[in-house]
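Exam revision sheet. Question 4 asks you to relate a sequence to its structure. Input first:
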Amino acid sequence: MRVLCVDLGDVRTGLAAGDDIVGLVQPLSVLVERNADLRLEKIAKAIDEHGADLMVVGLPINMDDTEGPRAIAARAFGAALAERTGLPVEFHDERLSSFEADDSLKGSGLTRKGKKKIQDAVAAATILQDWFNARS
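Answer key, structure tokens:
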């Protein structure tokens, strides 16, 4: 099954894809879009391009295991994405995914600006890999 993961942001949204049979995950791109409707359309296009069968949306849970406004927004986005695409959407805890993405980019030779361009896609890949690991 082909899975597309979304690390939702207000401006930058990271995308990653993976396959549950082999468990490989790949960062894809970072969408830069403030308009929620246009962001949804760009993600729907990525779903078509990558042949996704399932969506995973990062869920920003607070460190005390509560869900705040960002988690509520992610759940609403996931519902809109499911309605728009007809695909099932699952949510996965994204705590510390940005920190892990930053950590994995250390020593990459990229400038701060270069890292910022791909950080959200790497974070989406981290979320998706964790989702795969949790399922196995």
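Marking note for examiners. The helical segments are 36-50, 69-85, 97-105, 112-135.
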